[in-house]
């Protein structure tokens, strides 16, 4: 089965408690990767259709029944505008979607520095005024100290506004330095401890080079949760799972984009030859691998491009979704009546339903004819 589940397969999957994905050596916990809650009475259809028979109000509610959605859009408002309550993740009125987790990174710091005064910019300024950093004679050490403090100050503030974990980026210049990554994570964790942020609320985002994966293995053995990113191949994903990474992040759309403009990657070409989207195929293969061998890692899908990507990924632990897609899911709702139902069925459904009914009718008649011949029984 292709990971891009067709309409009938997708609706059946939502109503199936257990199933399997093609390629798994043994059936995984469910066709939808991992059901986070008991199944709702809901049918969600891929393509242009929307929920037809549901206790939930729209496709977004249905999606949330299976995966945790992490918004990919952040707009910063000033604290005072909301009487001290900072609306960090601010959505259009039609699709207000509270954040569940957050990432603090160098790109986020750059964005904050370009904004007017906010609580988060204040966190950066506090870091730049830190006397410990000022006391370092080496300029590189001083700047590294400032960066660490800024990341952690902002991360600690974020931890107060999201119920889930905050992932903190590890300096990408250390991507091929296992000891350097571990040392950097220890430095960041020490600063978080000083701000009384529990390590259970933290992830450390590390590039999935071999050295990064090895650093993840060693950090996880210490009880430090890691988030391996830049996963674009099964070898990376499998090694990350073996290392015990808490989160493995696969960039679905980026793999698809690469495949459109390049050739020569055997893994991608094999997926395309099988009629699969290479990014979604990697998620499927990684999921099957994790559950086949009982690894603890959670999957995160990023760079999703459309609603069909969301539907095809339902059940993985985290999906990072752009605001436009969330709005589309929020606004998708069809209230069916007899006329709209009949017009939407299409010739295939009409013909197949009629054929199925005819078969059942014929079997019922044969049963009645048989009963007519053998009744009454000899001993009655």
TrEMBL record:
Pathway: Carbohydrate degradation; pentose phosphate pathway; D-glyceraldehyde 3-phosphate and beta-D-fructose 6-phosphate from D-ribose 5-phosphate and D-xylulose 5-phosphate (non-oxidative stage): step 2/3. GO terms for molecular function: transaldolase activity. Keywords: Cytoplasm, Pentose shunt, Schiff base. Its EC number is 2.2.1.2. It is an enzyme of class 2 (transferase). SUPFAM superfamilies: Aldolase (SSF51569). This is transaldolase.
């Amino acid at each position: 089965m292709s990971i891009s589940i067709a309409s009938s397969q997708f609706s059946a999957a939502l109503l199936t408690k257990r199933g399997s994905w093609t390629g798994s050596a043994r059936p995984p916990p469910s066709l939808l990767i991992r059901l986070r809650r008991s199944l709702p009475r809901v049918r969600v259809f891929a393509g242009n259709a929307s929920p037809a028979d549901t206790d939930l109000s729209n496709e977004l509610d249905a999606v949330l029944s299976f995966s945790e959605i992490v918004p990919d859009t952040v707009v910063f408002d000033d604290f005072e505008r909301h009487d001290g309550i900072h609306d960090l993740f601010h959505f259009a009125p039609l699709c207000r979607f509270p954040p569940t987790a957050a990432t603090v990174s160098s790109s986020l710091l750059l964005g904050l520095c370009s904004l007017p005064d906010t609580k988060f910019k204040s966190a950066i300024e506090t870091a730049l005024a830190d006397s410990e950093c000022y006391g370092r004679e080496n300029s590189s050490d001083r700047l590294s100290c400032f960066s660490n403090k800024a990341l952690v100050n902002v991360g600690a503030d974020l931890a107060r506004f999201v119920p889930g974990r905050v992932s903190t980026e590890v300096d990408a210049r250390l991507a091929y330095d296992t000891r350097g990554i571990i040392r950097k994570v220890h430095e960041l964790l020490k600063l978080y401890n000083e701000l009384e942020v529990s390590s259970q609320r933290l992830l450390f985002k590390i590039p999935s080079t071999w050295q990064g994966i090895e650093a993840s293995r060693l950090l996880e053995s210490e009880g430090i949760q890691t988030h391996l990113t830049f996963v674009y191949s099964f070898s990376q994903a499998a090694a990350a799972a073996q290392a015990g990474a808490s989160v493995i992040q696969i960039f679905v759309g980026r793999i698809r984009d690469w495949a459109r403009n390049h050739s020569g990657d055997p893994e991608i070409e094999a997926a395309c030859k099988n009629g699969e989207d290479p990014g979604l195929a990697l998620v499927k293969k990684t999921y099957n691998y994790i559950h086949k061998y009982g690894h603890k890692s959670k999957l995160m899908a990023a760079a999703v491009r459309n609603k069909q990507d969301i539907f095809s990924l339902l059940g993985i632990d985290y999906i990072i979704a752009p605001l436009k897609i969330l709005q589309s899911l929020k606004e998708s709702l069809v209230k069916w009546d007899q006329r709209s139902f009949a017009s939407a069925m299409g010739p295939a459904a009409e013909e197949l339903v009629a054929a199925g009914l005819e078969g059942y009718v014929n079997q019922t008649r044969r049963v009645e004819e048989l009963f007519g011949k053998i009744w009454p029984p000899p001993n009655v």
